[in-house]
Amino acid sequence: MSFKTGHVGLNVSDLDRSKEFYLKVFGFEVLGESDQAERRYAFLGLGGELLVTLWQQSEGRFATGLPGLHHLAFQVPDIETVRRAETVIREIGGTLHHDGVVPHREGASSGGVFFEDPDGIRLEIYAPSGADERPAPTEGGPTCGFF
Rounded distance, CA 116 to CA 91, Å? Predict the structure, then answer.
């Protein structure tokens, strides 16, 4: 038996705001959506492949201090793609941790950007190499574990 992550479903407080964020930062396309008042959702993906579903059925901000999702990471082919995402996050005034592209740990070439969506859900976009221009922000531990 083998497992592969399919899509990830996220509860959001404002579907329109979240949809705009994910379309801009990730370059996703809308694969399907509903605008029924009590059943609002959007299916987002690339090339027809579903990656993220947004469900408007929450209030407030994501509570990182409670058990549940730590962060959601997306791998991209190269560090240039990560830097383009960083630029968009900065342009839209997103919450960016570690002030930009950083390695996953000291001495690692893999790494990326760590940020939050409009509801405070922690996200990461990373590449397998090219992130070793700056030191890791967390000494002795994985960067993705402490933001």
Answer: 14
Is the separation of the CB atoms in 97 and 147 below 8 Å? yes
In the chain, CATH 3.10.180.10 sits at 8-56, 72-145
- Measured from the Cβ of residue 100, the count of other Cβ atoms closer than 10 Å reads 19
Task: Supply the Cα-derived Rg of the chain in whole angstroms.
Answer: 16
Instruction: Assess if CATH 3.10.180.10 describes domain 72-145.
Output: yes
Task: Answer for the pair 54, 48: CB distance below 8 angstroms, yes or no.
Answer: no
Region 8-56: CATH code: 3.10.180.10
User: pLDDT digits over 40-67, tens only?
Assistant: 999 999 999 999 999 999 999 999 989 9
The pTM assigned to this predicted structure is 0.94
User: What is the identity of the amino acid at 32?
Assistant: G
How far is residue 52's CA from residue 31's CA, in Å, rounded to a whole number? 10
